[in-house]
Amino acid sequence: MTELLEKSIQTLELPRVLAMLADEAVTEEGKETCRKVRPQTVVSDVSRLQKQTSAAFQMLVKHGTPSFSGVRPVAAALQRADRGGALNTRELLDIAQVLRCARNVREYGVGESTEKTVLDGYFHSLSPNRFLEEKISGSILSEDEIADSASPELADIRRHIRAAAGKVRDVLNRLISSNQSKYLQESIITMRGGRYVVPVKSEHKNEIPGLVHDVSGSGGTFFIEPMGVVNANNELRELQMKEQKEIERILAELSADCAGFREGIEDNYRTLIALDVIFARAKLSTHMGGMEPVLGDYIELHKARHPLLDPKTAVRNDLYLGKDFDTLVITGPNTGGKTVTLKTLGLLTLMAQCGLHIPAMDGSTIRVCSAVLADIGDEQSIDQSLSTFSSHMVNIVAMLEQLDEDTLVLFDELGAGTDPVEGAALAAAIIESARQLGARVAATTHYAELKVYAMTTQGVENASCEFNVDTLAPTYRVLIGIPGKSNAFAISRRLGLPDYIIQRAADRIDAENVRFEDVISQLESQRQAMEREKEKAQELRREMERTKAEADHYRERIEEERRKATEKAQAEARAIIQEARDTADAVFKELNAMRRRQEKAREWVDDNQQRSDLRRTLNEAENALGAKGEELEAPAPTRPAVVGDMVEVLKTHTQAQVVGVNKDGTLQLQAGILKLKAKQEEVRVLEEATARHKQSQKDKARKATVTRPFRAAAAKAELDLRGMMVDEALAAVDMFLDNALMGKLETVTIIHGKGTGALRKAVREHLKHSRYVKSARPGAYGEGEDGVTVVTMK
After folding, report:
1. Is the pTM of this model over 0.70?
2. What pLDDT was estimated at residue 701?
3. Cα–Cα distance, 651 to 440 (Å, whole number)
4. How far is residue 531's CA from residue 524's CA, in Å, rounded to a whole number?
């Protein structure tokens, strides 16, 4: 990158945008990478960067931001481990964090989504190593603490350390609680040089034999290790040295493991940094309301704004260059926004080539340039004896030497700082030379000659920054196709300059310039009138669109209502037809039943008639033969029948059971499914049949008694209602309680779960009114708590 291009990047304030980008990054190396980003000049590279930013933006919207926190550089530590060095706990924890982040980011990118994006390669290239990650995390709890579980040897050593320390404390506690405590400065146990000691008053230092390890600053306290704990302290010290050696061995082993996976860990780190930068671009796009520009052969920005201006107050403008014209000459009053317009053109181009979204509307197009060169601002230098004009010329000369057909060149106040006539001529010549080299040019000026040049030259277009003369304030709107006025006279008049001075100044302007300014004024008036008409037309169009939308909505509602009415009518018709069919089916069924009953009745009548005919024929035959059967001997009289007796009906010789005795003495009999009525003299009691029947009843009663224990055994002590509706559940509760009562269960459990609480509330309210329930309570801890109800039966 040339010095002039870097200078132009600084002039257009791209580093300020990159600083905003760095603020969105999470890792320190990601932030530094963001600050060092420079525009790409190959279309395919720019397209790739833009697609990455857009893909990350979509993932942010759908899934949120992936976490890159805690990722620190690990290359130096891995290199030292690869050479056989042992890493410290901080370095090992950093490596574990890289592995953890790689695993989480891979899950974020691969996850459950089936959509393919340009970032898939990054996510799939991450290679998590959960074994090493968990080995480090399980062994190192913090920078200052190694876990007991790091190795069995370490756990054993620390167990012995705790035991030895306990011995020492026991001995010292006995000393503190003995009559020697009067020699102590305080009844405490402390440590000096890694050994347990007690603070002894200086005047009694010889009363407690032992080793002196320290003396207080005032000399009033001696920290003495009593002789009784010297050996225990020695043992403790030896164990502590073993512990340190074991820790060093563990760190060396973990370092060797990291060295074995060095390449994968370094690749993960580089991929995470790249993804951090990509997602930083996406987050910046979110904050500035950016969009992915179309890459084309020209610049066409819709409602673009400068990214460093407050989005709430910045005026958005439509800017075009390179399609219908390759040069744009921007004129207008000072502080009207000409320079901001130049910087917006250049900065948005550089941002797009850095892979950043630009603050413009959808459909905006950017041309990828080999260089964006800008000569903006006053760079006069006393040390180098350069005036404003000279400093501009130095920049322009260097720029002309580097121009080509893919360059965007921006001139601010071209030709200023010298004689106006010569400056205007020189400015036109410079623009013409840049155009001949194929560059796209945008320049600001106050020279009327350049306005005429733009109006009369093919491929060159005027633009102006609008100024409100009534308020003496710029509107910052850029109007392409219309030259601007300096409005010096109008501004001076509003500021109080006497009219006669303004008139004298006007008299000094030649007639040609006056006519030109008048033409510009007329054009401006016509433009403003056209703008007003355009606004009215747009308002009318918007009103028509609103009316059309309301009409479409009303028509859709009518269609929807008509469709619903049609569906309702059809449903009612289907219901009527179905009801008629059901009624017809019922009638047909009733007719069939009646027909079957009639046929059955007719068959019975026919049978009875046939039996009567047959009996009559037999009687006639018997009479004709004169053979009269012998009279059967009348049965012996029996006792009057009572309820429960089995009797025989004498006329039909049918057995029946007496189920009742009426007040008039007649009997109600049950013969199978038939109920009969007979007098006492029309039946006789069957003693044997009565005895058999009573014995049968006793056997049934005995069986019922025997089966009750089995029923009690079958009764369940627990009912699960989960998944049932309330009505279904309450019916099940009643049946359950009935079985529990018959089974003589004292306590039962009803499982209804916690859920919304509706089923629990309904069950407990139902239990309050049950005649089977003595009391009910929620389950205790271990019984299911509020998810069950324990019932005590009456």
Report:
1. no
2. 62
3. 132
4. 10
Torsion, Cα of 577, 578, 583, 587 (10° steps): 100
Cα dist from 171 to 229, 233, 385, whole Å: 7, 11, 88
Residues in a beta bridge with 237 = none
* Whether the predicted pLDDT of 228 surpasses 80: no
Partnered with residue 200 across adjacent β-strands are: 184, 222
Contacts of 390 (CB under 8 A, 6+ apart): 380
The DSSP 8-state label assigned to residue 627 in this structure reads -
Question: pLDDT class for 49, splitting at 50, 70, 90?
Answer: very high
Coil/strand/helix, residue 208? coil
3-class secondary structure for 128-165? CCHHHHHHHHHHEEECCEECHHHCHHHHHHHHHHHHHH
C-alpha 135/C-alpha 133 separation (Å) is 5
Question: How confident is the model over 106-161, as pLDDT tens digits?
Answer: 999 887 666 788 999 999 999 999 999 999 999 999 888 999 999 999 999 989 98
Tokens of 247: 């820790």
CA dist., res. 190 & res. 169, Å (int):
10
- 394-448 pLDDT, tens digit per residue, is 888 888 888 889 999 999 888 777 777 888 888 899 999 999 999 999 998 888 7
Which amino acid makes up residue 71?
Answer: V
pLDDT beyond 50 at 381 = no
For residue 358, the Cα-to-chain-centroid distance in whole angstroms is 27
Query: Which of 436, 207, 415 has its CA nearest to residue 331?
Result: 415
HSE of 772, CA atoms in CB hemisphere, 13 A: 19
Per-residue confidence band for 488, with pLDDT thresholds at 50, 70 and 90: low
Q: Are strands 140-142 and 145-146 parallel, antiparallel or unpaired?
A: antiparallel
Name the 3-class secondary structure at 719.
strand
Element (H, E) at 65: none
Beta pairing partners, 480? 463
Q: Which residue, among 527, 377, 372, has the nearest Cα to 464 in the 3D structure?
A: 527
In degrees, rounded to 5, the angle at the alpha carbon of residue 193 between the alpha carbons of residues 187 and 198 is 15
Q: Which residues contact 687 (CB under 8 A, 6 or more apart)?
A: 638
Q: Tell me how far apart the alpha carbons of residues 56 and 295 are, in angstroms, rounded to a whole number.
A: 19
The confidence score (pLDDT) of residue 327 equals 93
Cβ contacts of 760-769, under 8 Å, gap ≥ 24: 760/786, 760/787, 760/789, 762/726, 762/729, 762/730, 763/721, 763/729, 763/730, 763/733, 763/789, 764/789, 766/730, 766/733, 767/733, 767/791
Q: Using CA atoms, how far apart are residues 768 and 755, in angstroms rounded to an integer?
A: 21
Q: Which alpha helices (H) appear in 410-476, and where do they start and end?
A: 420-436, 448-456
In angstroms, rounded to a whole number, what is the distance separating the alpha carbons of residues 521 and 311? 32
Buried b (16+ CB within 10 A) or exposed e, 352-382: bbbbbbbbbeeebbbbbbbbbbbbbeebeee
DSSP string over 318-382: EEEESSS-SEEEEE--TTSSHHHHHHHHHHHHHHHHTT--BSS-TT-EEE--SEEEEE-S---BT
Model pLDDT, residue 513: 53
As a 3-state breakdown, the chain gives helix, strand, coil percent values, each rounded to 5, of: 55, 15, 30
pLDDT > 90: percent of the chain: 33
- Average pLDDT, stretch 710-737? 78
pLDDT tens digits along 501-516: 877 776 766 544 545 5
